[in-house]
TrEMBL record:
Pfam families: ADAMTS_spacer1 (PF05986), TSP1_ADAMTS (PF19030), TSP_1 (PF00090). It comes from Gulo gulo (Wolverine). This is ADAMTS/ADAMTS-like Spacer 1 domain-containing protein. PROSITE patterns: TSP1. The lineage of its organism: Eukaryota, Metazoa, Chordata, Craniata, Vertebrata. Residues 13-91 form the ADAMTS/ADAMTS-like Spacer domain. GO terms for cellular component: extracellular matrix; extracellular region. Coiled coil: none annotated. It is found in: Secreted.
Amino acid sequence: ILQHSYSGKPEDDNYLALSDTQGNFLLNGNFVVSMSKKEINIQGAIFEYSGSNSSVERINSTDRLEEEVVLQVLCVGNLYNPDVRYSFNIPVEEKSDLFTWDPYGPWQDCTKMCQGLHRRKITCIRKSDHMVVSDQRCDHLPLPLFVTEKCNTDCELRWHIIGKSECSSHCGQGYRSLDVHCMRYSIHKGQTVSVDDHYCGDQLKPATRESCHGDCVLTRWHYSEWSQCSRSCGGGERSRESYCINNFGHRLANRECQELPRVTTENCNEFSCPSWATSEWSECLVTCGKGTKQRQVWCHLNKDHL
């Protein structure tokens, strides 16, 4: 028997008391309360009392009582509601035919997420009122067969390939990776959900790699003719148009060739341009007065051009 203090402190205004059926107090009562621990003998049964100076006041006995006792609560002071909790055991006769195994106990968990089995727990019961008791009461009896039933039948678990990589070879024999996951298929809802792979552990997992054959469709850049050089000498630049085609000559989107090198401009006519060359001036044709002198002038091409 437990009486919990409303404040959580030993000081409380509620106290436990025991009396017999004639009203004679056996523990506490008559406005007298024992604060310290004590043991009392009631018709040969020993009762242990915690004393009132405890946040949880306690009366306990493990002996068998042959007569009734009355529990009372003495309430004084502020008259807070007492919090009394109690438990007791009823002795049962030790006869083997009073108990039996009951195979129809509560259902246990399903063995699988989908398409599994579950079974009822086998319990020991008292025949008179079908009260569940300790299994020790039925240990001498043979266990009945388990009652089983299919469960989680509305779904299935199986491996599913949800994706494939590109073939490693664009032309000829190669391989590709497979993305394999355990999937839960709901039969009635029509839903598919990915679950942890261990749920498909009882099924053979498909290979995660398979052979493949490239279809030999190759791509390349196709170019137009070069344009005229922007300069006739001294370093210029020329350009050309480009577009992506396959090996069958069909034009493709340029992104199909984006990983291939492309040359659409280049330098041209990088040789030096011609320049005028002159000889030394001749002597003046007159020794005094205004005269003229001459020199030769010609167009000169650099050796790297020749």
